[in-house]
Amino acid sequence: MDRPGVMIPECPQSANTRCHSQNGEKSHSRTGLLSEIQTPIRTEPFSNIYSLIPGKELGRGKFAVVKKYVKTCTGKEYAAKCMKKRRKGQDCRLEIIHEIAVLELAKSNCWVIDLHEVYETSTEMILVLE
């Protein structure tokens, strides 16, 4: 539903972005989910870059856990949303990509948390949030 005064910006249109198809329209999967993202998905071990702050679980849902981590090289704290790629035997990677795309679209909105980085392991995707 549209709300007056609340705008979520579009991705910038350029040849270097992956959020638009070649004809300038947003790329959607057959399920209606956004399927193109700009944020690189990193595959190096998450634990080499971030350290868990013990006892700092920020939230828990059916398929994800959010915990507080610190980036080892900077000392800056982040929330990391660890999302299982398979749920009830189904591959849910596309739904996670959609969530990443939505966070990218809302990046400049002060009411939406910023996506910092994305990591992927064999079993989960980790969204590092500010």
UniProtKB/TrEMBL annotation:
EC number of this enzyme: 2.7.11.1
BP-aspect Gene Ontology terms: intracellular signal transduction; positive regulation of apoptotic process
Superkingdom of source: Eukaryota
PROSITE patterns: PROTEIN_KINASE_ATP (PS00107), PROTEIN_KINASE_DOM (PS50011)
Catalytic activity line of the entry: L-threonyl-[protein] + ATP = O-phospho-L-threonyl-[protein] + ADP + H(+); L-seryl-[protein] + ATP = O-phospho-L-seryl-[protein] + ADP + H(+)
Transmembrane segments annotated in the record for this chain: none
GO cellular component: nucleus
Domain Protein kinase residue range list: 52-130
Name of protein: non-specific serine/threonine protein kinase
